[in-house]
């Protein structure tokens, strides 16, 4: 893929960046170099490479999946102005 001067001006306009006509050729060269590098990355064979979560190998921290708290419905609704059958009661706001 190649970028021309018109594309540089269009990208600058979309990004709302003021680019003078003298800067267009330099930006065109830089964008073409960046896109060339990205094309090179696409040629790398990564079929046997596992995805990484970090640069150092580590196991994910896991916790036991179990109920650690509960049976406190009375404590939870104790400070509510109105409750019934372990539910908060609120005034009706929609008719």
UniProtKB/TrEMBL annotation:
Its EC number is 6.3.5.-. GO terms for molecular function: asparaginyl-tRNA synthase (glutamine-hydrolyzing) activity; ATP binding; glutaminyl-tRNA synthase (glutamine-hydrolyzing) activity; transferase activity. Signal peptide: none annotated. It holds the Pfam family GatC. Keywords: ATP-binding, Ligase, Nucleotide-binding, Protein biosynthesis, Transferase. It comes from the Bacteria. It catalyses: L-glutamyl-tRNA(Gln) + L-glutamine + ATP + H2O = L-glutaminyl-tRNA(Gln) + L-glutamate + ADP + phosphate + H(+); L-aspartyl-tRNA(Asn) + L-glutamine + ATP + H2O = L-asparaginyl-tRNA(Asn) + L-glutamate + ADP + phosphate + 2 H(+). The keyword Nuclease does not apply. Belongs to the GatC family. This is Aspartyl/glutamyl-tRNA(Asn/Gln) amidotransferase subunit C. It comes from Fulvimarina manganoxydans.
